[in-house]
Structures are given as C-alpha cells and as structure tokens.
Recover the amino acids of this structure.
C-alpha cells in the first residue's frame, strides 16, 4: 500500500536493535483517519471470505482491528496478555514471544467468544517472527474455528515470519512489507494486489 | 444513553466484588458497530469545544476512543501502562490505581505528542473512582495543555469518582451512569442530555 509505505518512510524511525518506531501514527499517537483507511484496505482484501470475527491482541493492534471490523461489519475480539501460565479453565490460551518488547507472554481468549462456527481474520499491527499470529491461530484452532487468514500493517519481510506462514498455506496480507531497513533507507517488497 | 443502558442490562454481568462485566460488547469481544455509535455520541457531546486530540489509556479504552476520534476527526493518543516508576525523561507520567484490576500503575505519554497548544478530550471505558481520568488529566496539565473534559462509557455513579471531578468543575460526560447495581437489577441515573 503505497500510501502506507510513504508514511512509514516519512515518519518512521529506525532504532538500534532492528526496531522500527511508528509511534507517530500507529502505536502511541494514532492517526485515526489514516488507520481507518488501513482497516478499510484489510476489509477489501478479505471481503467475500466468510469472515465473521476478527481476532487481535492488546494493545496496539486494537485500533486498526477496530477499523477493519467496522468495514467488514463483524465483531472484534482482543486477546488479553497474561504474564504467567496461571490460566483459568474457561479460556483458550497460547504462548508467544514479543520481538518488540523482548518478553514472553500468554494470550488468552474466553471460550465464550470463539467457537467451531467461526471463520476468523487475525489482525495485528506488526509482523516480525510471526509469533503473535501463530499464537492467535492456535487459539482459533483450539476453538475448532477456521482461520480465514492474517493481516498485518507492517511486516518485516526479512525476519521471515510472514513467509514461513505463507509456506504453510496461510493467507497473510501485509499492507507494507519491509525487505531491508537502515537509518534513512527503507526498502519495500512490491505489492501486486494493492489499490492504494 | 438508553440504547447503552438497555445493552448493559441485557448483557452485563454483575460479579462479586462490585465488578460489572461487559466483556460481551466492550472489554473483550467488541461489538464494533455499537462501539462506533458510542464514539459518535461522545463526539456529538464535545463538538464545537475545540478538541484537537483525544487521550485514552491502554487497552480496553482504545476501541471506543478510536471511534470518538474518528467522528471528531482528531488524532488519538493512548497512554501506556508501566509497572514501575522507572520512567524516561522524554515522557509525561502519572500514577493511578485500577479498581478493576486492583493494582497500581504509571501511565506514560511521550512528550512529542502533547503540548501547550492542545485541547484534549479524555476518554475511557469505565469510570469508578476516577483515578485513570485524574492521572490522564495530570499528564495533559504537565504538557501545559487544556482538558476540554472527560467522557466515559460506563460510570459507576455510586463510587463517586465522576461527581468528585464535576465538583471541581471538570466536564464529565458518561453515556450510562449506574446508581446501584446488584445481580438482576441495575439502576441508572437519568440523563437529560441524551439523544439516543
């Protein structure tokens, strides 16, 4: 999505440790008008796929997932992050590792809100190693539901998480895929499906 | 807001410890269509007040604050929660206590995203003792900005946080104010300003 690539190039900051900071429009200050456009583009890509729920994880994925759910006209579930494995019986849970925060966590979703009847689109802001998406896919599978696919806003293509999932046959749509990144120079993977 | 009161009465669960669980549409599973309506109503109440930013706190306030920001056409900043007081120089921070989670935290906002030029609307999902709102107001004041007011979705009127702020002259709009709550019976404060 050219609009997003231009915004990342203009406003993103490449920090030591291979961190891309997009706090100015996505992760701390949210450019809501722009994020609604991102959600609309995700909805466009998954229209007609039978998605009846979106699943994301707190906290920074919630805004864009809300936008996507609005345009797909489906409810949104956000998994909660727990520190430990001390989890109740009435939830589905799966462990994940955060590349950004450098820690492990357990994602938790109440059994009330996912079932075998669901076709779920998984949405997150960043895709690096794919740990969060795998964890959310595991939760949908525990419920017996179907994963329609995943959508991320920014994929770090060179970290391989997205392509690993694609190789397994999972549909992964990322609105911008970064192939390489250094201060002052971000290179994107061409996106043949894009409209914007 | 009658629509919201009816939804809380129909779907909310009153749990021991004075907890109202609205996980089915607001705090875990999000009824996005409904939450967009809530955001629209917040925007209607603060239209023409010069609001140029909305401030909320992660995680469960983000969806409704996104909706309000969309209809007011302003950016949204969400404060991050830290566990400790070990905070960097480039942020505003203030401590708060969570009634729901029974813990203390420090809310943090980067100095980049708030300034003396800002007129800020503070949005959160729940208002009980008012600790989160006071903490976010303190952050706006540290930046030298002006607080246009606060908006919450569900205020527990009998816990006094909202009225304490109103007595100090702060404008507080809550879309539903619960006067008393027990299993099977929730009583709301009449709302003269409501449209929906």
């Amino acid at each position: 999505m050219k609009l997003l690539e231009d915004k990342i190039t203009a406003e993103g900051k490449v920090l030591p440790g291979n961190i891309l900071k997009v706090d100015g429009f996505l992760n701390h200050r949210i450019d809501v008008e722009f994020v609604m456009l991102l959600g609309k583009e995700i909805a466009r890509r998954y229209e007609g796929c039978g998605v009846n729920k979106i699943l994301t994880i707190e906290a920074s994925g919630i805004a864009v997932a809300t936008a996507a759910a609005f345009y797909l006209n489906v409810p949104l579930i956000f998994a909660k992050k727990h520190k430990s494995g001390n989890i109740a019986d009435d939830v589905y849970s799966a462990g994940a590792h955060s590349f950004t925060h450098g820690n492990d966590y357990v994602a938790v979703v109440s059994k009330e809100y996912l079932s075998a009847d669901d076709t779920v689109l998984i949405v997150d802001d960043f895709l690096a190693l794919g740990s969060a998406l795998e964890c959310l896919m595991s939760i949908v599978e525990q419920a017996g539901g179907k994963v329609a696919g995943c959508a991320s806003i920014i994929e770090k293509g060179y970290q391989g998480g997205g392509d690993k999932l694609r190789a397994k046959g999972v549909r992964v749509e990322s609105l911008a895929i970064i192939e390489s990144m250094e201060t002052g120079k971000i290179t994107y993977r061409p996106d043949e499906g894009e409209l914007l």
